[in-house]
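pasting for the record
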Amino acid sequence: MVAVDLASKWLVTTLLHGAVNAGGLLSLMASSNSGIGFSAMRGQTVAVLLLSIVALLFCARLLTRVQTNVALVALALIVGGGLSNLLDRALHGGQVTDFVGVSSWFVCNGADIAISLGVVLLIVSSCTGRKVLR
């Protein structure tokens, strides 16, 4: 997951010049972001890095307490996406590369999609009534 996300970011920044309509609401466009989701905390690099590290450590700890396969996949997506964005920040002066444009609403990357999907899976799996963590 991490290698695929970092490779896709490299390909986009190397080969894509300008925006490309990917059909409907989607487009491909290289941009950078020093914040977190929806550009929150933009320009607060140290705080974003510390928050990312704490969140990754917390989720990694939760991986040791998982009781369902869905929760395991969900946390793996969250940790993989978080690690990929953290490495991207380390390689690019505190910024992540975003390239998937969704209408004019936001631009994200594969790691962001993995994190979001993992959070949704974790919420859904915890609503089933089965114990997700021990």
